[in-house]
Amino acid sequence: MLPSRRLAVTLLAAILAGGAAADTQPGAARQRELVRLVRQDCGSCHGLTLKGGLGPALLPGALRDKPLEALRYTILLGRPGTAMPAWKTILSEAEADWIARRLVEGFPEER
Amino acid sequence: MSNTLTLFRSLLAAVCAALLAACGAAPVRGTGDLGLVIERASGAVLVVDTTARSVLARVEGLGDLSHASAVFSRDGRYAYVFGRDGGLTKVDLLLGRIDKRIIQSGNAIGGSISQDGRLVVAQNYEPGGIKVFDAQTLELLADIPSAYGDGTRRSKVVGLADVPGNKFAYALFDAGEIWVADVADPRAPKVTRYRNAGSQPYDGLVTPDGRHYLAGLFGEDGVALVDLWRPEQGVRRILPDYGKGQEKLPVFKMPHLRGWAVAGRHAYLPAVGRHEVLVVDTATWQETARIPVKGQPVFVMARPDGRQVWVNFAFPDNGWVQVIDTLEGRVVHTLQPGRAVLHMEFAPRGESVWISARDDHRVMVYDTANFRELAQLPAASPSGIFFTARAARIGF
After folding, report:
1. A99, B54, B95, B395: which has the fewest C-beta neighbours closer than 10 Å?
2. What mean pLDDT do residues A28-45 have?
3. In chain A, what residues touch B248 (CB-CB under 8 Å)?
4. What is the residue-wise DSSP string for B86-99?
5. Which helix (H) or strand (E) holds A94?
6. Where are the strands (E) in B247-350, listed by range?
7. To 5 degrees, how large is the angle CA A47–CA B131–CA B258?
8. Contact between B40 and A48 using a beta-carbon 8 Å cutoff
9. What is the pLDDT of residue A24?
């Protein structure tokens, strides 16, 4: 309980500090894994085409006006009280940032 | 010259005959050992033969099949496939082709078929509600919006299951309600609402006898229960504090419920956000045991004879499958069928089980008596596996 809260605070601080995350982009192989993860595993709630399901649509039209930090924060820490889980044990901050940016501009297809 | 021509003509005739035999008339055979495998990413389904353990046909053009499910006509000839994009496709298993296809909503999650086989019902996220169709023609007969609160909002519908009397029970994720729609007269449906069923029901099941409807809750610990034989008693809460005092793990995938959770007198239910299967006595609805397992359970399915319960898991433990021996009340075997195990289906009497491994693009078939591999079938990102034996079961 405590360590995870401490982690959350650290993460939050890092997120608020901004910037840093974008510097360490995931490598090409990891990017492919992330595309698959988003399409398949985020897709189980948001739909394979990200048009929505139990969770809302994650298409550019739906996300464009939302601040990147907020999206990254949602991905890493989830939304307590909803079905959106925290992915911080699976995704690094840089990876969440990469996913958030790709979602906003239109998420790549799996190749 | 004329010889070659004659030869050419008879060859042509032979080819035509072969083509007619292949594509024209239905082969004379039963469908009791047939089924469907959903190819999640390619909008196709495989028609499979569980006796020969082979693929009979691949049918394309079914749209977005993420989270697709299927039910069967009572004669076992047609499958109704519900796609995420709101597509409802009637597939002819014998001819291996689409018989009819409609887009019935913007975002769907599954469906069910009525006791008499005449009505197919789809459960929808967007716009929220259920729709009732003529099973033969797919003509829309009734549209029942899941309006709640001040009546302007519509809830996502989950856990739809048919119950005796041409009724359907389902749960409203956003509203926390259970509804039972009586569609004996499909043009004039009657709905019974159970309010305050619990927070965020994520799926539901009907016991194999059709008597009890259970909705698993995501927003709080516990399961909502309606005794459909005693509807006046309303909704009751069971397993109210199975996770008390402990922080839930992040749930990367919602568990699924269906009548296959019941083995003999006990129901085996996934504990949300915990690495446990909960065992409930269906005579008293009291918890009798918790069985520790490898990850967060998604499907907890009893072999038809009830002696074993097979469990698969949410990401990131989705490469494993575990087998519980119901007599011993513990895990007796662990398998690794492949990467991203999404679904399992038993042969009608349970001697074998088919398991889809999405990221290894294959379906594995195991002998349930000794866990030996019996076959491997290639499939593109396979997800759901559905056998025609479902046609004869209440609650599917």
Report:
1. B54
2. 94
3. none
4. SEEEEEETTTTEEE
5. helix A93-105
6. 262-263, 266-270, 276-281, 286-292, 297-302, 308-313, 321-325, 330-335, 341-346
7. 65
8. yes
9. 79
Is residue B65 a contact partner of residue B343, using CB atoms and an 8 Å limit? Answer: no
Q: Is the pLDDT of residue B199 over 80?
A: yes
Q: What is the mean pLDDT of chain B?
A: 93
CA B367 to chain centre: 22
How confident is the model over B88-113, as a mean pLDDT? 95
Three-state SS for B58?
Answer: strand
Q: Is A87 close to B340, i.e. CB distance below 8 A?
A: no
C-alpha–C-alpha distance, residues B368 and B366, integer Å: 6
**Which one of B82, B84, B200, B312 makes the best mutation probe of the A interface by having the most chain A beta carbons within 10 Å?**
B84
Terminal alpha carbon distance of chain A: 39
Q: What are the residues whose beta carbons fall under 8 Å from the beta carbon of B386, sequence distance 6 or more?
A: B35, B36, B38, B69, B70, B71, B72, B79, B345
Report d(CA B35, CA B388) in Å as an integer: 5
- Residues B114-151 pLDDT 10s: 999 999 999 999 999 999 999 999 999 999 999 999 99
Mean pLDDT of the region A28-43: 95
In angstroms, rounded to a whole number, what is the distance separating the alpha carbons of residues A53 and A35?
A: 18
Work out the average pLDDT over B261-284. Answer: 96
Owner of token pair 């197919």 = B120
Q: At what angle do helices A93-105 and A68-77 cross, to 10 degrees?
A: 130
Which burial class, exposed, middle or buried, applies to A61 when counting CB atoms under 10 A from its CB (0-12, 13-18, 19+)? exposed
Q: How far is CA B381 from CA B66, B295, B321, in A?
A: 10, 22, 18
Burial B151-174 (b: 16+ CB within 10 A, else e): eeebbbbbbbbbbeebbbbbbbbb
Helix axes A93-105, A28-36, angle to 10 degrees: 70
ipTM of the complex: 0.85
Residue owning tokens 């992330």: A34
The CATH class, in words, for A3-105 is mainly alpha
Tens of pLDDT, residue by residue over A16-27, are 444 444 457 999
> Domain coordinates of chain A in residue numbers?
3-105
DSSP structure class, residue B307 = S
Mean pLDDT for all residues in chain A? 85
Q: How many CB pairs under 8 A join A and B?
A: 67
